[in-house]
Every structure is written in structure tokens, then in C-alpha cells.
Q: What sequence folds into this?
């Protein structure tokens, strides 16, 4: 059985460049597309979303093993319309939540996204999320690399 590249090489003159162009349009070249990243994610979890609620928060730890600061600049998930980067800050004696453009992860360091601090918000949650469910997330870094994350849904009910 011949592979695709062998077929390109044996194509009649004039067709090989077109076949190669078709191949390049469907297969990313090395270094393009989903790149490997020095940033990794641990302890990812999502707050449970009862029926009728359309927002929730995601918490996790970002670790950067590389020599250069990186930053999360966007993200997405199939379970919600929008994923936004947010922070909680004390303003005028009250806690206020606001969006941020980026979440920096220092070189050879880490940053914790936690309740009351930096976190990810999911808006337009499409279905109830119960404890034990898993939510897939995609985070995009400032260098274009992407991180695929699976976050466990945790109950916010007090433990007995």
C-alpha cells in the first residue's frame, strides 16, 4: 500500500504541486497548530451548576517550567457560550469581580486560580453540571500554544 506522499511523488507533472498544497491545507506543518507548551495545568475543578443557573467558575493551578513568562489570554469550552478570565479584588471595602485581559504565569513558577482571586468564568452554561462530571476546556496562551484541560465538577454543598 502506498502512502499519500508516495502518490504525490508519482503524480503526473503539474499535479504534484497541487496535491502537495492540498496536503498542507489539511495537515499542520511542524511547529504550527496546537503547539506544545511549557505551561501545564493541575488541580482543575469547576463549581457545580444547578438547573436554572447559567454561570460558574473554574479554578486550577498553572505551572510554567519554561524560562519565559507566559500568559493565558483566552479559552473556550463546549459546555458554555463564553469562557472569560476574571479576578476578584477588594474595592471600597467590598469584593468585586472584573474581567482581565491575561493571566501571567511567571517563568519557572506557578499561579493559582482560586475562589476570591484569579479564576475563569463560564457564561451561558448549556446544561446542569453535577459533582463528578468532567468539563473539557481549552486555554490559549500568548505564544499561540493551547492547553487541553479536563476539570472535575465539585459540589459546593457543605460536607456533613
A:
Amino acid at each position: 500500500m502506498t502512502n499519500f506522499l508516495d502518490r504525490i511523488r508519482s503524480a503526473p507533472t503539474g499535479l504534484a504541486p497541487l496535491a502537495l498544497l492540498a496536503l498542507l491545507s489539511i495537515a499542520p506543518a511542524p511547529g504550527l497548530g496546537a503547539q506544545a507548551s511549557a505551561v501545564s495545568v493541575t488541580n482543575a475543578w469547576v463549581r457545580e451548576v444547578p438547573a436554572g443557573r447559567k454561570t460558574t467558575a473554574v479554578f486550577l493551578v498553572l505551572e510554567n517550567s519554561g524560562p519565559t513568562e507566559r500568559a493565558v489570554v483566552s479559552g473556550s469550552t463546549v459546555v458554555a457560550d463564553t469562557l472569560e478570565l476574571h479576578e476578584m479584588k477588594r474595592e471600597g471595602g467590598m469584593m468585586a469581580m472584573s474581567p482581565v485581559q491575561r493571566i501571567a504565569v511567571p517563568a519557572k513558577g506557578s499561579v493559582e486560580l482560586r475562589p476570591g482571586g484569579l479564576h475563569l468564568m463560564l457564561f451561558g452554561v448549556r446544561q446542569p453540571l453535577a459533582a463528578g462530571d468532567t468539563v473539557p476546556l481549552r486555554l490559549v496562551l500568548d505564544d499561540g500554544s493551547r492547553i487541553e484541560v479536563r476539570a472535575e465538577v465539585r459540589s459546593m454543598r457543605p460536607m456533613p
About this structure: The chain has a mean pLDDT of 82. Strands lie at 39-47, 55-64, 70-76, 80-91, 94-99, 103-105, 109-113, 119-125, 134-141, 146-154. The longest helix spans residues 16-26. The chain has two domains: 1-32, 39-154.
